[in-house]
User: Which sequence fits this backbone?
C-alpha cells in the first residue's frame, strides 16, 4: 500500500486550532474592564478544572490563554477629567442629524449594542480630545460631529 493512502490518525483531517488573535496596540482598560477580565479568567480556570473531556478542556484552555494574556497586559487608565472626550468618558454627540451617546472603553470591554465602543474604533478616534460645543471632522466632512456633552464613566 502506498504511503499516500495511509492515514496516521483520526486527528489528521481536523482543521488546526489557532490562538485567539490579540488586538494590536496597548491593552487599555477601565477599572470595570479590568474587573471583567479578572472575572473571566477566574471563570475559565474553574471551567478548565471541572472539564470532563479532553476536547472541551483544550478549547477552554485556549480561551483561558487569551484572557490571561489580556489580564497580564492590561493597563488600567486613570479616570478622565470629563472636560474633553478621552478614554473612559461617555460622550453625547450629533452625527448626521442624530444624537447618540457612547462610552469609550478598551477593546475587550467594547459592546456596540450597549453603546460602548473601543478607543481604537474610527468613531472613537474622531471624537478624541473634542469638547462640548466643538465640531469635529469625520469621513469627508469637516464639521460632521457636534460634541454635545462629555462626562467620565461612573
Assistant:
Amino acid at each position: 500500500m502506498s504511503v499516500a493512502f495511509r492515514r496516521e490518525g483520526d486527528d489528521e483531517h481536523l482543521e488546526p486550532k489557532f490562538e485567539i488573535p490579540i488586538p494590536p496596540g496597548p491593552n487599555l482598560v477601565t477599572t470595570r474592564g479590568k474587573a471583567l477580565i479578572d472575572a473571566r479568567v477566574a471563570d475559565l480556570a474553574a471551567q478548565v478544572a471541572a472539564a470532563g473531556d479532553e476536547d472541551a478542556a483544550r478549547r477552554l484552555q485556549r480561551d483561558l490563554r487569551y484572557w490571561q494574556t489580556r489580564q497580564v497586559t492590561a493597563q488600567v487608565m486613570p479616570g478622565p477629567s470629563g472636560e474633553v472626550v478621552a478614554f473612559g468618558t461617555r460622550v453625547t454627540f450629533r452625527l448626521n442629524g442624530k444624537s447618540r451617546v457612547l462610552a469609550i472603553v478598551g477593546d475587550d470591554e467594547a459592546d456596540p449594542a450597549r453603546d460602548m465602543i473601543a478607543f481604537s474604533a474610527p468613531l472613537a478616534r474622531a471624537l478624541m480630545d473634542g469638547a462640548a460645543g466643538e465640531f469635529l471632522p469625520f469621513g469627508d466632512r469637516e464639521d460632521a460631529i457636534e460634541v454635545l456633552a462629555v462626562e467620565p464613566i461612573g
Summary: The domain at 89-152 is CATH 3.10.50.30 (Chitinase A; domain 3). The mean pLDDT is 89. The chain has two domains: 25-76, 89-152.
